[in-house]
Design a protein that fits this description.
alpha/beta; Rossmann fold; DNA polymerase, domain 1; 2 domains; 7-stranded mixed beta sheet
Amino acid sequence: MMVAMHAKPHHIPVLQKEVCMLLAPQKGDAMLDCTLGAGGHAQLFLQCIGPTGTLIGLDADRENLAIAQSNLKEWADSCTFIHANFREILHLTIPPVDILFADLGLSSMHINTPERGFTFHHETELDMRFNREEGIPAWKWIEQKSEEELAQALKDYGELQQSRKLARLLKEQAVRTTTDVAECVAELFRWRGKKMLPQVFQALRIAVNDELGALCILLKEGPRLLKSKGRMGIISFHSLEDRMVKQAFRDLTAPPSPYTLLTKKPIRSSEEEVRRNPRSRSAHLRAIQRSS
């Protein structure tokens, strides 16, 4: 059943109807939202599971978690909010759930908060951490990595050509701000620089937050939390993540297996949704179900 979503000016959850139809939350269900964000998808889930249901919401970003708590205060009695990255899922003693959900990647709140350093549209310190209480900012990460390590990250996570040249330039210029990086990209790629910037920033963000390492843990440990008939759904936004989810779900559901693949091909956004929310264009939704 699809329910109405109150408009949130800062974030529009993608694939709302498709997520609800595929994961089919029911009254009384126990849910785990691994990427709570502003609580957009969680609000839809809570309307479906009702007061007898429960939702555990994780987020690596304490600021996002505070926004979600405010947005979901109507359902506070049904919610448990945990400041944690889903890579910590094994250590959180989470009980079995009917539905496990993750919406990967960058949130609109990160994009719309320039001082976090996730985008190249504003000059600010190059931070890029989802959790600013842990780890080191991106500029420091670049400083500490060798040229070879930095080049490999740019190639693997941004699928960039000339990654070695860019790595050398970033090291030589001792980049500290988003503008520093943008100027290095412009110097190397010339007229193609503006087109290459999203790939460069994506690569640095993925590396600094070890996003693929966290996803690997979720894909391994998440299915074990599902109850009988429980469902797990993941939305990814770039090819690296989607390939990992696709392969993990295929391996997990290969017979004989207690898991069934619910999406032979990823579910994509409709043309109407893409018009309303351009961010949804690259969204891929895949899901599995535990049969026993």
